[in-house]
Every structure is written in structure tokens, then in C-alpha cells.
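Exercise 7. Given the encoded structure of a 215-residue chain, write a plausible sequence.
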């Protein structure tokens, strides 16, 4: 897989996700370099609001959420915080710090395989692997990669970049340029996928929705 190098100014995405309606609310905050563990049920909604970083979101067969963080820059480690709030069915992970440079910051987030995911970040890379559920991903500059070994089970797909490329071998498509997008509908699908990168690249990798075999 290609690594996209982008020279772009960093900007913070504006926007707030809906407030959590469940109670009680649990909160957990650790510094980068420490592991963060929390409760998260299969089928839950997880919102991720992060500073620039490389984020790997990995689906597992275990309940709960486990977050690990590392950086090539020791200053980023001490100044980056991981904060988890919400309930086991609606949680928010906030990754913030005093500086907004990437500095080789890498975050690994392990979650139940079946969750609904929302994520926003100003710059960096978001990789989503083996997550079954709705997805709403926003990135200002960088790359989003979505991979699934299971059948690509989306009923509504809306993926776009303002400047860059959408590479979608799962649909047999790959273009590039300005305002590149892939929009698909499949009546047999179950989930919704929305992803947008202002400047950069999106890759959709997986088993074709029309391939035979179990989902």
C-alpha cells in the first residue's frame, strides 16, 4: 500500500458530535505511553476526535476498548492525552495535546468487531480494519484506508476527496484529480459508509459486494 506524503497546512476540523444521552458517564484519562482500557459493547457507537496522528482502528472478538499510544518524539508522548468518556454503548475517545504536529504519533485502538464508528482528525492517517458497522470519517489532509476480509456489506457508500484520489479496488475503480468520489448503493447491504478527505487519498480494500459466499 502506498504511503501518501502531503505538504499541507494543518487545520482543525470544526464540528461537534451529539451529546451522550446515557448515564452514568464514565471517564478515563491517561498520558500517551500508558495503555487506556475501557468498557465498550458490541454494536456500540464510538466517536474519535483526534489531534494529527496515525490511527489504526482494529476490530477484535473481545468486548471493551484498548488504546495504546507511542511517538518518535518524547515531547509528544508527554504532551498527548487519551481521554475516554461515555457509556459502554456510546463512547467518545479524545486524543489531544498542546502541540498539533504529527511528530510520528501512532495510536492503536482495539474495539469489538461490530461497532458504529465516527472519527475526525485534521491530518494524518486513519486505518480501519475489520470493523463491521456504520462509518463516518473526516480528515483534512492525509489518507483513509478501510479494509475488510469479510464481504463488503454496505447499502450506502459516499466516499470523496476534494483534491487527491479515491482508490476502490473493491468496486474495481481508481481515479484521481479534483473532487474524486465513489458513490454506491446496494439493496442487499446493511451499513452506511461516509468518508471524506479534503487533500489526500482514500482506499477501499475488501471482498466485492457481488462476490459469492457468506458475509
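Solution.
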Amino acid at each position: 500500500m502506498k504511503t501518501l506524503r502531503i505538504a499541507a497546512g494543518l487545520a482543525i476540523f470544526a464540528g461537534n458530535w451529539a451529546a451522550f444521552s446515557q448515564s452514568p458517564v464514565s471517564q478515563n484519562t491517561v498520558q500517551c505511553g500508558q495503555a487506556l482500557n475501557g468498557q465498550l459493547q458490541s454494536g456500540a457507537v464510538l466517536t474519535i476526535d483526534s489531534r494529527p496522528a496515525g490511527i489504526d482502528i482494529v476490530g477484535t472478538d473481545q468486548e471493551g476498548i484498548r488504546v495504546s499510544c507511542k511517538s518518535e518524539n518524547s515531547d509528544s508522548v508527554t504532551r498527548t492525552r487519551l481521554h475516554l468518556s461515555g457509556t459502554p454503548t456510546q463512547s467518545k475517545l479524545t486524543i489531544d495535546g498542546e502541540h498539533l504536529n504529527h511528530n510520528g504519533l501512532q495510536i492503536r485502538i482495539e474495539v469489538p468487531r461490530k461497532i458504529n464508528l465516527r472519527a475526525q482528525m485534521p491530518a494524518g492517517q486513519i486505518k480501519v480494519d475489520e470493523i463491521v458497522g456504520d462509518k463516518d470519517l473526516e480528515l483534512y489532509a492525509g489518507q483513509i484506508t478501510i479494509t475488510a476480509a469479510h464481504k463488503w456489506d454496505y447499502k450506502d457508500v459516499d466516499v470523496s476527496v476534494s483534491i487527491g484520489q479515491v482508490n476502490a479496488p473493491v468496486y474495481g475503480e481508481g481515479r484521481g484529480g479534483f473532487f474524486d468520489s465513489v458513490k454506491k448503493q446496494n439493496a442487499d447491504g446493511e451499513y452506511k459508509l461516509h468518508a471524506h478527505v479534503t487533500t489526500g487519498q482514500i482506499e477501499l480494500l475488501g471482498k466485492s459486494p457481488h462476490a459469492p459466499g457468506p458475509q
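Remark. The chain has two domains: 27-131, 134-208. Students should compare their own answers with the one above.
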